[in-house]
Design a protein that fits this description.
Layout lengths: L9 E5 L4 H12 L3 E6 L5 H6 L3 E4 L7 H8 L4 E4 L9 H22 L3 E7 L12 H18 L4 E7 L1 E3 L6 E5 L7 E3 H14 L5 E7 L2 E2 H7 L3
Parallel strand pairs: 1-2, 1-4, 2-3, 4-5, 5-6, 6-10, 7-9
Antiparallel strand pairs: 8-10, 8-11
Pfam families: NAD_binding_10
Protein name: NAD-dependent epimerase/dehydratase
InterPro entries: NAD(P)-bd_dom, NAD(P)-bd_dom_sf
């Protein structure tokens, strides 16, 4: 019998203009999936379209559950890849990295979208080191609170804690596990590929994963999280 082609997915990516989000959009659209990027700035729509996606202009800091749920309706998966970014204030770490994630998860529940993948950081889950700047303390706290809020939902969530991000080319090989991953770096391109594999495969539901550069091919590493 002929092999049936994989079903095309509709994936909504919050923070659609971020570096990882654009790489993820390109990866997914190249595989035949439909990606909608949520962007705050109308000037960023063209960049999302240039990598094969479509874009919705919506400010998650100024929106509500009903409005966001409308964007998510009919989606197969949601990826939270938004962040206040370098140079932002401690206040915006909470309004974007925490509150926007919580809003998106609530909207996903309302829209009936079960699959939710959250981009976090390897530093989350414990307080920032003594002597850290107030902005860094806020960032780690916001990411940790966002993780905790997501875990309390009924969504099929996966939290991906990425190591220190670099802009080098992807290696295609990673260390990906639920614990005991030494802190290290990882190219944004490999983070995007891991996210794509998590979304398409549906692996690692209700698991928190740590990610750094390693020696295992990405598809193999993601498949192992389902075991």
């Amino acid at each position: 019998m002929p092999t049936r082609a994989p079903r095309s997915l509709r994936v909504v990516v919050a923070g659609g203009h971020g570096q990882i989000a654009l790489l993820l959009t390109r990866t997914l659209t190249d595989r035949g999936h439909d990606v909608v990027g949520i962007v705050r700035n109308p000037d960023h729509v063209a960049d999302v379209e240039a990598v094969g996606g479509s874009a919705v202009v919506q400010d998650l800091e100024a929106s509500d559950v009903v409005a966001v749920a409308e964007v998510l309706t009919g989606a197969d998966a949601v990826v939270f890849a938004a962040g206040a970014g370098p140079g932002s204030t401690a206040e915006r770490k909470y309004t974007v990295d925490r509150d926007a994630s919580i809003l998106l998860a609530a909207a996903a529940e309302q829209a009936g979208v079960k699959r939710f993948v959250q981009v976090s950081t390897s530093r989350a889950g414990s307080p920032a080191a003594t002597g850290s700047t107030p902005v860094w303390v806020a960032y780690i706290d916001a990411k940790t609170q966002a993780e905790d809020a997501l875990k309390a939902t009924n969504l099929d969530w996966t939290i991906l804690r990425a190591g220190a991000l670099t802009n080098g080319p992807g290696t295609g090989r990673v260390t990906l596990a639920g614990r005991h991953v030494p802190r290290g770096t990882v190219p944004r391109a490999d983070v995007a590929t891991v996210l794509a594999e998590l979304v398409v495969s549906g692996a690692a539901v209700r698991r928190t994963l740590e990610l750094t550069t390693g020696h295992v091919p990405i598809a193999t590493a993601v498949a192992a999280t389902a075991q």
